């Protein structure tokens, strides 16, 4: 939801709070690293899939520690993914 506080922030502060530059830089790096694959389905689809993965929290899979540590959303996404993988460990006395 849109909060009144968000509208009171200058645009550069809002973008900084949400780490938009971090995600844009990462998206462009990923695009350049995979440009051969991307030519098959287009740049717009790549950015759509990238930012959908950010929203879903799956963008941290198979990523380096510095990327996971870069934003609060990345850290929370990592913890959710870790919990999903290991929540059953030890439940049955293992």
TrEMBL record:
<keyword id="KW-0963">Cytoplasm</keyword>
<comment type="function">
    <text>Regulator of the tubulin polyglutamylase complex (TPGC) that controls cytoskeletal organization, nuclear shape, and cilium disassembly by balancing microtubule and actin assembly. Regulates the assembly and stability of the TPGC and thereby modulates polyglutamylation of the microtubule, which antagonizes MAP4 binding.</text>
</comment>
<comment type="similarity">
    <text>Belongs to the CSTPP1 family.</text>
</comment>
<dbReference type="InterPro" id="IPR038968">
    <property type="entry name" value="CSTPP1"/>
</dbReference>
<comment type="subunit">
    <text>Interacts with PCM1. Interacts with TTLL1, TPGS1, TPGS2 and LRRC49; the interactions link CSTPP1 to the complex TPGC. Binds to alpha-tubulin.</text>
</comment>
<keyword id="KW-0206">Cytoskeleton</keyword>
<keyword id="KW-0493">Microtubule</keyword>
<protein>
    <recommendedName>
        <fullName>Centriolar satellite-associated tubulin polyglutamylase complex regulator 1</fullName>
    </recommendedName>
</protein>
<keyword id="KW-0597">Phosphoprotein</keyword>
<dbReference type="GO" id="GO:0005874">
    <property type="term" value="C:microtubule"/>
</dbReference>
<dbReference type="GO" id="GO:0034451">
    <property type="term" value="C:centriolar satellite"/>
</dbReference>
């Amino acid at each position: 939801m849109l909060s009144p506080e968000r509208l009171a922030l200058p645009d550069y502060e809002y973008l900084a709070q949400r780490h938009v530059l971090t995600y844009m830089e990462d998206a462009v790096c990923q695009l350049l690293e995979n440009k051969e694959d991307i030519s098959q389905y287009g740049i717009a689809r790549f950015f759509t899939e990238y930012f959908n993965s950010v929203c879903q929290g799956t963008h941290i899979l198979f990523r380096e520690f510095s990327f996971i540590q870069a934003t609060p959303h990345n850290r929370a996404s990592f913890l959710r993914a870790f919990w999903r993988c290991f929540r059953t460990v030890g439940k049955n006395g293992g």
